Amino acid sequence: MKVEDILRGKGTRINMVRVHETVDTALQLMKTDNVGALVVKDVCRTEGNTVVGVISERDVVRGLVDRGPSVLKQPVSALMTADPVTCRPGDPIHHVLRLMDEHAIRHVPVLDGPTLIGVISVRDLIKLQLGEACAAEAWNSPVAAHQ
């Protein structure tokens, strides 16, 4: 299975925040959208939306511990991971798992050339594994064997 197969089932909405928004705004977006990270974009008149980073709950927690609650009023650029690890739509899922493991990350933006087309998260990979496990279980059940 490839990254594009997972993206096909997710829909087209990508959770993003602008680079100059506050960390507090980013947290509100994460809460509203029930996600653990946002792609950080910079709106450039000549280049359109450019991916400049990712900000995650983990980044915010570390910022709070290191700098205190004043970090919530800072721009997301103060805490985001710049130049994040990315993957391509044609990459196999095991490649994304390896990236997540090697870099200790839970969200990987998917780029088709320079264009952001989605994000693969640990939650997506768990859903995939759960679906495969349930399908295998149903296939091996006594009821399926008699049909």
The radius of gyration over CA amounts to 18 Å
What structural category characterises the helix and strand content? alpha+beta
| CATH homologous superfamily caption | CBS-domain
What is the annotated CATH architecture? Roll
**Overall number of domains:** 1
Ends apart, CA distance between termini:
28 Å
The total strand number stands at: 6
The CATH topology: CBS-domain
Q: What is the H/E order? A: HEHEEHEHEEHH
Structure write-up:
This protein has 147 residues and is of the alpha+beta class. The chain has one domain (3-145): CBS-domain (Roll). 44% of the residues lie in helices and 24% in strands. The chain contains 6 helices and 6 strands; from the N terminus they run αβαββαβαββαα. It has a 4-stranded mixed sheet. The chain has a two-stranded antiparallel ribbon with strand order 5-6. The longest helix is centred in the last third of the chain and has 19 residues, at 122-140. The mean pLDDT is 89.
Which terms would index this structure?
alpha+beta
Concise overview:
The protein is α+β, with helices and mostly antiparallel strands and 147 residues long. The chain contains six helices and six strands.
List the helices and strands and how they pair.
Layout lengths: L2 H8 L5 E3 L4 H11 L3 E8 L3 E9 H11 L13 E2 L10 H11 L3 E6 L2 E7 H19 L1 H4 L2
Parallel strand pairs: 1-2
Antiparallel strand pairs: 2-3, 3-4, 5-6
